[in-house]
């Protein structure tokens, strides 16, 4: 349990960074991070590997002005760069597309030309792997074409981004409410949310369609959004959609979730994007508000029953909701109180020792139920650090923007500001 003296976002992040730096491993002249400190293997990917640590280090360098973090980011970029040609997966969170995003971030923030050249190389690898319709058999955001399209868009490659989503129109399945997609060809069931479902595809179609001046892609995105909206089970004031239909049969999957990956916090990010794209349509702001209402009244972050809210991380836990709360504070001025609650909860759940502090997650169906603390973005400390530092910037009146924006998280803008 962390002491009350450290129970604020800046101090939490500072101590957590010590633990992350201590978990790094030297490989030749680079650094790499394992998922847990005891793992033998390391990975270069954004989801749970070194690429997911780099954005947190860059935020830390900008906030604390401590060159240890810049040096670690540069050395981490070297290990990611060394893996670009040999890493077989191409996805945003699992492969070369996400590695490119992280490398470009190191280049932009630290003016590291080697990282920039490696980011360009990663994009060349993606272009070469594209077979004319796809990189793999997945449509979704984490692994498939949707996420890779967003990475291409982040790099300003509108041609590749459009080609990445070109098969989505033929693959769309009509429903009573609109359209939806398989996760991959032949897969059941149909998922609805950001990470593997319809809304992740909606995000990619809307972002690419808007940037490329392609109303056909935007309209297809709106049809996908309509399908998910038609499944709302929370009434006219809220927004809560099931994990999947038919419900995916797995003992660890609940019907409803509230996190970024399969729940309301991620749904709100899609509606934020659509509101940026169509600011004259009040439906999108209304749906984002309904998501916010549902989160405020959900009971999170309290652990009211086993399995209800066992994750602290960015993907499906408290840090992902904190990201939305900070968005709300910047754009509407109504997120700070809940953001403070979430930070306070992270403070009470942190573990501290001589190595710094860290967070573990719970799997109540396993023995022991406390999982090992992880280093990366999705379930681990880097993802939490990144959101804590943003909360600290907001708390001290600093720039709320991330050092490295992720391509599936809309930038914050005041309601009257133009789409960035």
Topology record:
Layout: H1 9-23, E1 25-27, E2 30-32, H2 50-64, H3 67-83, H4 96-110, H5 113-129, H6 145-154, H7 158-164, H8 168-171, E3 173-174, E4 179-180, E5 190-191, H9 198-212, H10 215-229, E6 244-245, H11 264-277, H12 282-296, H13 318-332, H14 336-349, E7 351-353, E8 356-358, H15 381-395
Antiparallel strand pairs: 1-2, 3-4, 5-6, 7-8
Characterization of this structure:
The protein is mainly alpha-helical and 420 residues long. It contains 15 helices and eight strands. The strands form four sheets. Strands 1-2 form a two-stranded antiparallel ribbon. A two-stranded antiparallel sheet has the order 3-4. Strand 1 and strand 2 form a beta hairpin. Helix 3 packs parallel to helix 5 and helix 13 packs antiparallel against helix 14. The longest helix has 17 residues. The radius of gyration is 20 Å and the shape is globular. The N and C termini lie far apart (41 Å). The N terminus and C terminus are likely disordered.
